[in-house]
Amino acid sequence: MKRKLFIECNFAFILGIIFLIIGPTVIYLDFLAYGSIWYKVLLGTFIPSIILFYISRIKETRKKLYSVLLVIHIILLLRYFGIYTFGRSGPYTDIKFYNHILRENNYPERLGVFPEVIPEDASDINMRYFRGMLQAKGFFVLKYKASEKHIDDLLKKYEFKSGVGFGEGTNNALLYTSYAYIRDMDEKTIDINYGEKIYIYETDYSNYTTGILILKDVAEVVYFIFIEP
Hints:
The protein is of the alpha+beta class. It has two domains: about 1-90; about 95-225, no CATH class. Helices cover about 45% and strands about 20% of the residues. It has helices spanning about 1-30, 30-35, 40-55, 65-85, 100-105, 150-155, 170-175, 185-195; strands at about 125-130, 140-145, 160, 200-205, 210-215, 220-225. The chain has a six-stranded antiparallel β-sheet with strand order 1-2-6-5-4-3. Helix 1 packs antiparallel against helix 3. The protein is elongated.
């Protein structure tokens, strides 16, 4: 009896240690997903570990209570692994994670058109990043207002075309601009109304599309990449 109680108590203690380290480990492994909610992750893992440490010190066996708590803790453990596996895709909108996203995608691989550093004079910065999940496409869209010089430099650096011929990537990227409504217009209407206002650089690869969209009328630059699942 004493030996059985000793084993149960030590198992509870070990499980408590596991919960104690799982929170910081998950945050470290995926700071992009959990960095902004670190306190929730730690709270959700530290409280069960404290309960388990308490259980490991009781002198009398409370088998039913112990079994119920053990099942709850295992469910919580599986839940955290489930969140880590499936819920970590995003989307993420906090611009402070821009460098994390570049590193995660081995910049400049595939993200070569994206700037290594967002210009200091950029304003109205907006970002949407989704890692992709199951059959859902992954994407990364960065938008900001830029100076006339910055836009002119981009127009010289890449071979943009204006007005017509929106590709799939450009159509998707327009959703994150003030021009989303023109996606349903025909090419003639777009050319008449926006031919000298929208500049497109888009490249298709085997499993992803990337490019830059310049909305000169509102001085907006939009970088995008859409990745097939």
